[in-house]
Specification:
The complex is a heterodimer of chains A (120) and B (173).
Chain A (H helix, E strand, L loop, with lengths): L1 E6 L2 H18 L2 E6 L7 H15 L3 E5 L4 H11 L4 E5 L2 E2 L5 E2 L2 H9 L3 E5 L1
Parallel strand pairs in A: 1-2, 1-4, 2-3, 4-7
Antiparallel strand pairs in A: 5-6
Helix pairs in contact in A: 1-2, 3-4
Chain B lengths: L7 E2 L7 E4 L5 E6 L4 H9 L15 H11 L5 E7 L2 E10 L5 E7 L8 H15 L4 E7 L3 H10 L2 E2 L6 E8 L2
Classes of the chains: A alpha/beta (120), B alpha+beta (173).
Chain lengths: 120, 173
């Protein structure tokens, strides 16, 4: 299975990467990370942190960067490049612990033609 | 983020307070002190359909971890008791901007008896007494009964919604 993992922040996104990596070891999934940014962290910082983690995890992952409109770009890439699944991290937590889904989650869930998996 | 409403909400009752619910049950509303254990029991009885946006968590260790965060000294917790056991809980948890996020949970057997409305009003009265001015919440936008309850109390929709509807209220301190 070809899996596209959208990561927007190196802290929150790592869970999605690690869960996908664990599965890929057993199933042989092909993983691609699409890095985008909705926080203060720059695209380069996030990308560097992800490269580090991939080295530690010792898995084979392609990395691409999304500069703008991450929701629609994720959907577009998933369709154009025949991905089977899009994986997103569960987003931020509010002060009292509620999961906050943002506009990227919403766009991808409503518009992707692939399965969408939320890791939280 | 949208601003808080200019109009303040005041005249709210404060805890402790005893009410009789729509089913004739005597309900005591008190500010929580050291209530972690009894709240754990309440949330273990919580039904899946009454969860909201990932809370309350489902297993005991996650419930404990979550409650230990929301019941820190600087937060405000108000509990509704029936025969000595918690049946409803309002929490106000501070954010980074000196405002408070609010959530309310009422056990299923106690829903629809106006306990939620009175618990919420009393907790907000307690919050005003503590000097809390700005309160916000998020609610699943298809949860119409909750949205109309929050509106009735004075929360206003902010319009910056995604999956959840954001609502804000300013208390008359």
């Amino acid at each position: 299975m070809r899996v596209l993992i959208g990561i927007e922040d190196s802290n929150r996104g790592m869970q999605a990467l690690e869960a996908s990596a664990e599965r890929a070891r057993e199933s042989g999934d092909e993983l691609t990370v699409a890095v985008y940014t909705v926080s203060d962290e720059s695209l380069e910082e996030t990308t560097a942190a992800i490269r580090d983690r991939i080295t530690t995890l010792d898995i084979d992952v392609d990395i691409i960067q999304i500069e703008e409109e991450p929701g629609s770009k994720l959907v577009e890439i998933a369709e154009r490049e025949d991905f089977d699944q899009v994986v997103l991290s569960g987003g931020q937590r509010s002060p009292l612990g509620k999961i906050k889904l943002d506009s990227v989650h919403e766009f991808v869930l409503l518009n992707a033609r692939t399965t969408v998996k939320l890791v939280r | 983020m949208t601003e808080y409403p200019d109009d303040t909400v005041g005249g709210l009752p404060t805890p402790p307070r005893t009410i009789i619910d729509a089913d004739g049950r005597k309900i005591e509303i008190r500010t929580a002190d050291d209530s972690l254990e009894e709240l754990v029991e309440m949330y273990l009885d919580f039904h899946a359909e009454d969860r909201a946006q990932g809370i309350p968590p489902t297993n005991e260790s996650d419930i404990r971890e979550w409650l230990s965060v929301v019941t820190r000294d600087e937060e405000l917790n108000v509990i509704a008791y029936h025969e000595g056991n918690p049946v409803g809980h309002v929490m106000l948890v501070s954010d980074e901007e000196d405002a408070y996020e609010l959530a309310i949970f009422v056990l299923q057997e106690y829903q629809g008896a106006h306990i939620g409305t009175e618990l919420l009003r009393t907790a907000l009265g307690g919050a005003a007494e503590e000097g809390i001015e700005r309160v916000w919440l998020s609610v699943e936008r298809w949860n119409r009964p909750a949205v109309s309850l929050y509106k009735k109390i004075g929360f206003q929709e902010t319009g910056d919604d995604h999956f959840e509807k954001m609502m804000k209220l300013r208390l008359d301190g």
